[in-house]
Amino acid sequence: MRTRVAVIGGGQNCEHDVSLASAASVVAGLDPATYDVVPLTIGRDGTWRDRGMRPIGLSGAAEVLRGCDVVFPVVHGPRGEDGALAALCELAGLPYVGSGIRPGALAMDKWATKLVAQAVGIATAPGGLVTAATAAHLRWSRPVVVKPVAAGSSLGVSLVTAPEALRPALDAALALDDRVLVEDVVAGREIDVAVLRRADGRVVAAPALEIVAQGLFDYDAKYGGHADFRVPAVLDDVDAKALEDAALSAYDALGCAGVVRVDFFLTEAGPVLNEVNTTPGMTQHSQVPRMFAAAGLSYADLLDELVRGAHR
């Protein structure tokens, strides 16, 4: 008998389209011989829709979810990745793929992630927290990166290299969040490490991936095909071990489950944590599937591991 899996995409945030792409890829990638896939979509307005894109509301979605064996949330960003959908599944008593409420909320909050990382000895970029009330008092003194605390896909992120660019960058970030991180620019290679808790409980890291982009790795670079993803990244044994250890430590400290992408800058002094993504991009060409493909785990097998390892 096939396992019935509800795949949830979309969402009420600026990553809606990215989530739709991830969800569509998961739907297509789950082996139909093993899984009966039931797509659900959350519109930008919060309306839940069924396979035929008919509006069914939250009550209708709840009925659909109750008829499924496992829920596979693929909603990036707020009201999804931040633990909201994990909470819905927990309250409904439904097994689900991915991290739980606490790690979702912590990792979505880049400021909280920095505090957790620092507590377990993982280096982070020097920086501070800015709100709408304090933004007017901030003065530019050196190149910084400005980004929303709880947004993804590099939306609202700006590299500020001149004083006159600081205020527009803060306004762009504050348009997406009420809190903003202002961090020193870190000079280093951009390296991602994917971590997976397999269905048997083992936690493994995939070969690291390097992002080679001209300038800031922003939304256009990420999704416009302008970035060069190199996997496995060319690393010496010391750097490879340091990156893997830091990624596994972050995964453990945050209490993650399922698959997570941990983003670093590799500097002369070692890895510096950038952020942790508990619902990373999941198209077949996204960073995480590419990293596990380099380890010999196909996209279909990665999805199978995630479903079989769902919270019970």
Secondary structure elements and their pairing?
Blueprint: E1 3-10, H1 16-29, E2 35-42, E3 48-49, H2 57-66, E4 70-73, H3 84-92, H4 101-108, H5 110-119, E5 127-131, H6 132-135, E6 144-148, E7 158-160, H7 166-174, E8 179-184, E9 189-197, E10 203-205, E11 209-212, H8 219-223, E12 228-230, H9 237-254, E13 259-267, E14 270-277, H10 287-294, H11 299-308
Parallel strand pairs: 1-2, 1-4
Antiparallel strand pairs: 2-3, 5-8, 6-7, 6-8, 9-10, 9-11, 9-13, 11-12, 13-14
Explain this structure.
The chain is of the alpha+beta class. The protein folds into 3 domains: 3-96, Rossmann fold; 105-124 and 186-308, 2-Layer Sandwich (D-amino Acid Aminotransferase, Chain A, domain 1); 127-184, Dna Ligase, domain 1, CATH 3.30.1490. It is 34% helix and 25% strand. The protein contains 11 helices and 14 strands. It has helices at 16-29, 57-66, 84-92, 101-108, 110-119, 132-135, 166-174, 219-223, 237-254, 287-294, 299-308; strands at residues 3-10, 35-42, 48-49, 70-73, 127-131, 144-148, 158-160, 179-184, 189-197, 203-205, 209-212, 228-230, 259-267, 270-277. The strands form 3 sheets. Strands 9, 10, 11, 12, 13 and 14 form a 6-stranded antiparallel β-sheet that branches. Strand 2 and strand 3 form a beta hairpin. It starts with a strand and ends with a helix.
